[in-house]
Amino acid sequence: MQQHVRGMYDLRQELIANGVLVQEGSGYRFTQDYPFSSPSTAAAVVLGRSANGRIEWKDAKGRTLKELQEAEAGR
């Protein structure tokens, strides 16, 4: 990640250093709310790779953010 997405890598390291993001098992967990400019930036920071946040983020029922947004737009 460090070579490919430098800004996200730096942000991830900063969040870890400040205790906002902590390792839990093979993944990471937020210890507090943290605003991101986009769902994809948030996903990339957590996953450690480029990511499409609209398909990576899922609710407890397994629905993607994209599905939820499309359902909301259809109302």
From TrEMBL:
Pfam families found in the cross-reference section: DUF4357 (PF14267)
Domain of life (superkingdom): Bacteria
InterPro entries: DUF4357
Ranges where the DUF4357 domain occurs: 12-65
The protein, known as: DUF4357 domain-containing protein
Organism this protein belongs to: Hylemonella gracilis ATCC 19624
